[in-house]
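Encode chain A's predicted structure.
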Amino acid sequence: MRELTVLYDAQCSLCRRFKDWLAVQRPAPNGQGGVVRLRFVAAGSTYARALYPELDHEATLREVTVVADDGSVYVGDRAWIVCLWATGEHRHTAVRLASPVLRPVARAIVQAATGLRRSSGGDYADRCDGQCDRQG
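Encoded structure for chain A:
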């Protein structure tokens, strides 16, 4: 796997913040002498529809969707996990979250993020007072 395309809701500030965070992460090795590249495409856009006509583009606006260069499609918690897997620093965490024991934790995290998105009308990250960006 050399490239992942992350389809994200460009109208959602929480989604944009996740995309921006992911974009600055150091890429992980791809096992073929290179790294896993990430590209970001606004879900539901004309470009996304042209790239992936077979996808349900309304669904890609509701849940983060990732398409690998081999055609694999990841949705929801699987998409979040594969995004983490593509980063050098967080690959180990992704492998752990993908295990049967921790997969329910990954699902719960994604459901919590989805709940924040829905309850705030998509502007949760815009209303952050800056405390969420600080490390303890």
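The radius of gyration is 15 Å.
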